[in-house]
Structure prediction request, 428 residues.
Amino acid sequence: MYWQKKLETMDAEELRALQLKQLNLSIARAKNAPFYRSRGLREVKSLEELQEIPFTTKQDLRDGFPYGFLAVGLNEVVRLHSSSGTTGNPTVVFHTATDIDQWANLVARCMYMTGVRPGDVFQNTMGYGLFTGGLGFHYGAEKLGVLTIPIGPGNSKRQIWFMQKFGTTVVHILPSYAMHLYSIVEELGIDPKADLKLRIAFIGSEPHSDEMRRQIERLWGVKAYNSYGLSEVCGPGVAFECPEQNGMHIWEDSFIVEIVDPATGRVLPDGEEGELVLTTLQREAMPLLRYRTGDLTRILPGRCPCGRTHRRIERIKGRTDDMLIVNGVNIFPIQIERTIMRVPGVGKNYLIEIHEERHMDRLHVKVEVDREVFHGTLAELTGLKERLTEELKTELTVTPVVSICEPGSLPVSEGKAKRVVDLRTKNK
Ligand code: DLL
Prediction:
């Protein structure tokens, strides 16, 4: 059963007692890893004492490459995953058989929460291999007892063919790919609502706005659930939306959650926005203590009407290093997405470019429009461009240069979407 009622609805005090017990186990395990051994860790008497332990950063993981964080013997490790670093050593994460099982359990719990049951047909379009999106969901879905199609990413026509032939009901997909795949469905003259059996989409692994989620739901005729995770602490299955679709429950029997000020590292109270810091409570091969995820969010106050007591984090706003500074103004790409998605007929794909023009930054926003819109009159297109410019200016306080682009003309990547191209020489 993956409605784990006792664990999922535990009262706060009980949950804290469980966390403290597990935290000391994690500390004891971590001491076996060369990195933590050198930190002289000791047992903690209360959860508050966790704050005395220094943070672990992505740089620490890179410096500890390849085995510096391994806390068990190699004979106990059954798998490694890695995150796609752009510079330097990649981040490598090890798993024991128990780690894999516990991770699958979390994913199964997430899927069950949204109503997936044996008898569903689950198409997993995320990448298999070192990336955790594919295998993470695969093991979770099989554990739940659901027919799983390990199709992986790409080959859009084949994706749709599988959906039709096998009557796929649940899909795991990058939000950017869900938008792109819709354009292929359209091209093929298929109406997903009438011709497919899809009812649920799991979307995650990259920042996306609620507006984009609602578009995906509307276009595909599904309920789309936000799914958050990172390979350093397992992969998908860390935090997930319940049917309320209001924030993601973060599984506090497996992780201790802190939100800190990214500049000072000070722990912030619930409700304040900051960087998410995670401590693993179950992991054997590679426990992490106070890992700085780099992701910006906040803990939503109050209890969720669904009855689960594990706290909810708000949709990820971006990473601390995603923030763009355009002529001194701070901008998160997601603000741009949110704004363009609100305009009908716009935004299935978009690209943000920052140019340098006469020593000033210039923000360019390129947006694809729907085919009917693109073939509209010049006056209509000019009107649309003006409206987008105006709305972006109101949201960002910076006036962008908006370009209207033909559907299918902007780059599509097989993995996570690359939404920002910074062409400023000072950022090279
Ligand atoms: O992206 C794990 C995953 C796979 C999550 C499939 C959900 C679905 P990494 O490749 O290590 O792992 O990237 C982790 O992606 O720190 C966030 O910055 C970002 N991210 C993940 N989920 C979300 C989300 C997987 N729902 C990094 N919203 C994280 C926004 C997300 N950003």
Observations:
- Residues 1-318 form a domain with the Rossmann fold fold (CATH 3.40.50.12780).
- Residues 22 and 142 are 27 Å apart (CA to CA).
- The longest helix spans residues 12-30.
